[in-house]
C-alpha cells in the first residue's frame, strides 16, 4: 500500500533512511522506498563473476560490502551471491550504482553454467598449432594469434635486450613469451591468452579486445597513459562513455595488495583525491584505489600500475620501486637526469650500487608506445616530414625546443638529412622556427 504522508523510516529493501512517500505491507510490517519497489531480483555486475540476488531476509551476521567495504546490516535488503562457497555481498545502492551495473535484470530461468561454458568456447582468440607434454603438464608451444599473420613460438628462457617490447602490453619482453620467427612480434604468454571479450570492474559493459594501429596512439581511460598494442574497448551502442583500457590496467582487479600500504586497497569510481604516490589530484570522473580501512590512503591508476622493478643501463641490478625516502637531503638527486628529487615522490633505487632514479626517468615519457613506430607529419603542422618514436637520441641533435639531449623516448624526423628532434614533453610547447 502506497502511503503519501511524511514520516521517518528505514527501508527494508535497501537499509537506508527515508522520510516521505513509501510502500507499506501491513501483514509483514515492511516499509519500502518508492524507488526500491522496482529493484530487480537478479543482476550481473562488473565486480563479481556470478549473478547476485536481492534479499531482505538473510541471517543476521557481520558482513562487509565488497564494493565500498563498509558494514552491511543484514537485517535489511542487500545483494548476495547464492553460488556454493561464495559469500559475496553488497549494499543495494552499491550494487545498482551506474558505474558497476548496466541497468539490466537477469531472468529467473538464466542458466549461469551454460552461459559460462558458451562464453569460454567462443572467447579464445588463438588457435593451438602444437603442444608438448612435460610429464603431466601439457604446454602450448606454437599458436596462431588472431592479431598476427604468422605462427608464434613459445620461448621459455633467455634474455631480451631492452628494445624488445611485448606487442600486447608494450612492456619489456620477459619469459615466457611467444615470438614470430619472421618478424619482430612478441607476446607475453599472459597477453597471448587474453580472452576476446571480458567483463571488468572498471566498466559496466562487456569489453572487446582490439589491436591499435601503430601510426596512431590511444589514451587509456583508466590511467590516462598513451599506448600502442592491445586494449579492451566498450562496443555497447547505448554507452555514453567512450571507454578503452590498456592491458596493464585490465590485468588489475577490484582490490589491490600493494607494498606501499599495509591494508588492502579497493577501486572507487567518480572519486577525487590526492594520490599518495605522486600527490596529483585525480579527476573527479576517474577511478582510484582507496584503503579498505578508511585511512585516507589513495593511489591513482597510473601509480598503481608502476612496475615494482626497473632496469637502468648503468646498473647490473634491478632497481626497486621505493615508496619512503629517509635518505640524507644531499642524496635527493636522480642519477640519470641529475635533477633534484622530491622526497615525497616515489622513486627507483638500487641499494647495492646506490643508484636512484625518478620514476619518470626510469621509463621515459612514452614507455608504452612502440619504438620505431611513426607519427603523421601533421603532428607538427609546420614541419614537412613524418616522425619516428626513438628510445634515445644521444647521437642525434639536441631537442629543437629546449636544446637538451634526450634521456628517454623522443620524436625524430624520418628524413635522414633533417636534423629535427624533439622531446615528447617539449612537443606541446610553442615551436619557434
From TrEMBL:
InterPro entries: C1-like_sf, DC1, Vacuole_Formation_Reg. It comes from the Eukaryota. Pfam families: C1_2 (PF03107). One of its GO terms (molecular function) is metal ion binding. Keywords: Repeat. Residues 47-95, 147-192, 259-304, 313-362 form the DC1 domain. The keyword Repeat applies. The keyword Repeat applies. This is DC1 domain-containing protein. It comes from Gossypium hirsutum. The gene is LOC107950154.
Amino acid at each position: 500500500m502506497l502511503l503519501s504522508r511524511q514520516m521517518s523510516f528505514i527501508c527494508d529493501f535497501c537499509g537506508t533512511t527515508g522520510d516521505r512517500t513509501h510502500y507499506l505491507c501491513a501483514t509483514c510490517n515492511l516499509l519500502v522506498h518508492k524507488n526500491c519497489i522496482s529493484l530487480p531480483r537478479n543482476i550481473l555486475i562488473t565486480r563479481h563473476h556470478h549473478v547476485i540476488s536481492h534479499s531482505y531476509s538473510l541471517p543476521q551476521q557481520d558482513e562487509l560490502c565488497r564494493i565500498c567495504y563498509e558494514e552491511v546490516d543484514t537485517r535489511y535488503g542487500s545483494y548476495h551471491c547464492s553460488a556454493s562457497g561464495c559469500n559475496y555481498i553488497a549494499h543495494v545502492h552499491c550494487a545498482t550504482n551506474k558505474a558497476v551495473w548496466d541497468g539490466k535484470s537477469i531472468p529467473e530461468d538464466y542458466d549461469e553454467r551454460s552461459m559460462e561454458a558458451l562464453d569460454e568456447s567462443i572467447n579464445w582468440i588463438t588457435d593451438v598449432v602444437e603442444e608438448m607434454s612435460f610429464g603431466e603438464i601439457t604446454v602450448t608451444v606454437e599458436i596462431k594469434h588472431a592479431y598476427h599473420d604468422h605462427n608464434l613460438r613459445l620461448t621459455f628462457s633467455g634474455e631480451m635486450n631492452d628494445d624488445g617490447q611485448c606487442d600486447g602490453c608494450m612492456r619489456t619482453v620477459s619469459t615466457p613469451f611467444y615470438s614470430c620467427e619472421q618478424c619482430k612480434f612478441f607476446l607475453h604468454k599472459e597477453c597471448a591468452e587474453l580472452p576476446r571479450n571480458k567483463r571488468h570492474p572498471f566498466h559496466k559493459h562487456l569489453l572487446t579486445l582490439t589491436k591499435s594501429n601503430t601510426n596512431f596512439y590511444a589514451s587509456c581511460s583508466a590511467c590516462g597513459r598513451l599506448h600502442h598494442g592491445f586494449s579492451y574497448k566498450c562496443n555497447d551502442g547505448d554507452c555514453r562513455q567512450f571507454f578503452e583500457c590498456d592491458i596493464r590496467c585490465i590485468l588489475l582487479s577490484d582490490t589491490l595488495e600493494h607494498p606501499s600500504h599495509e591494508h588492502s586497497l579497493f577501486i572507487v569510481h567518480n572519486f577525487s583525491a590526492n594520490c599518495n604516490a605522486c600527490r596529483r589530484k585525480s579527476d573527479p570522473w576517474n577511478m582510484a584505489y582507496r584503503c579498505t580501512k578508511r585511512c585516507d590512503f589513495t593511489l591513482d591508476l597510473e601509480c598503481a600500475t608502476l612496475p615494482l622493478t626497473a632496469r637502468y643501463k648503468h646498473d647490473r641490478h634491478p632497481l626497486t620501486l621505493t615508496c619512503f625516502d629517509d635518505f640524507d637531503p644531499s642524496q635527493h638527486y636522480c642519477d640519470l637526469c641529475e635533477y633534484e628529487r622530491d622526497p615525497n615522490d616515489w622513486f627507483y633505487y638500487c641499494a647495492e650500487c646506490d643508484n636512484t632514479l625518478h620514476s619518470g626517468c626510469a621509463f621515459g615519457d612514452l614507455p608504452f608506445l612502440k619504438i620505431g613506430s611513426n607519427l603523421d607529419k601533421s603532428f607538427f603542422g609546420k614541419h614537412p616530414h613524418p616522425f619516428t618514436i626513438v628510445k634515445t637520441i644521444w647521437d642525434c641533435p639536441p631537442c629543437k625546443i629546449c636544446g637538451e639531449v634526450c634521456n628517454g623516448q623522443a620524436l625524430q624526423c624520418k628524413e635522414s638529412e633533417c636534423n629535427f628532434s624533439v622531446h615528447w614533453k617539449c612537443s606541446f610547447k610553442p615551436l619557434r622556427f
